[in-house]
Amino acid sequence: MENFSELLKVRRSMRKFTDEELTQEEVVALMKAALMSPTSKRTNAWQFIMVDDKELLEKLSHCKAQASQFIADAPLAIVVTADPLASDVWIEDASIASIIIQLQAEDMGLGSCWVQVRERFTASGMPSDEYVREVLDIPLQLQVLSVVAIGHKGMERKPFSEEHLQWEKVHINKYGGK
């Protein structure tokens, strides 16, 4: 990647992956990026669960009623959790970590897709975070924010076009200011 602006344009959600496994070096690079994610007051309230077991990936693919099935086909899923008792902004910190993981994946030429878990439900109506917690034996004090599916891209996506930027959503000095 030549620069950060280019990285932002080419990073698109990827829900289709090849069968190629990730190398240990790729997984380590992703974890380093996650562990370098900024947090409020450097609380580091997040924790990450790396899942590459096919059976567990299949189970995780049912964490939501819709839009999570592709997890089963990803060679890696990173479950992003955080401890709300360690930080009152755990949601923000875990969200930043999730996008840092996605940007690192894109920089490495990998595809990724964020699967929202917090405040979502399985097809049977069970809270998604409770379902993921049970599948992966996550301690009760940790809240599950997201699952980031990662793998080698199984399709091409066009980069984001700047002509679609919604400049009307940018305000100067005050809302509605031009």
Verbal overview:
With 178 residues, the chain is of the alpha+beta class. The chain has one domain (4-169): NADH Oxidase (3-Layer(aba) Sandwich). Helices cover 30% and strands 17% of the residues. The protein has helices at 4-10, 24-35, 54-60, 90-107, 128-136, and strands at 46-51, 76-82, 110-116, 143-152. The longest helix is centred in the middle third of the chain and has 18 residues, at 90-107.
How is the topology of this model organized?
Elements: H1 4-10, H2 24-35, E1 46-51, H3 54-60, E2 76-82, H4 90-107, E3 110-116, H5 128-136, E4 143-152
What would you say the CATH architecture is?
A: 3-Layer(aba) Sandwich
CATH class: Alpha Beta
Question: What's the rounded overall pLDDT mean?
Answer: 96
The proportion of residues forming helix, as a percent range, comes to 25-40%
Which key features would you list for this structure?
NADH Oxidase; 4-stranded antiparallel beta sheet; globular; 4 strands; 17% strand; 178 residues; alpha+beta; single chain; 30% helix
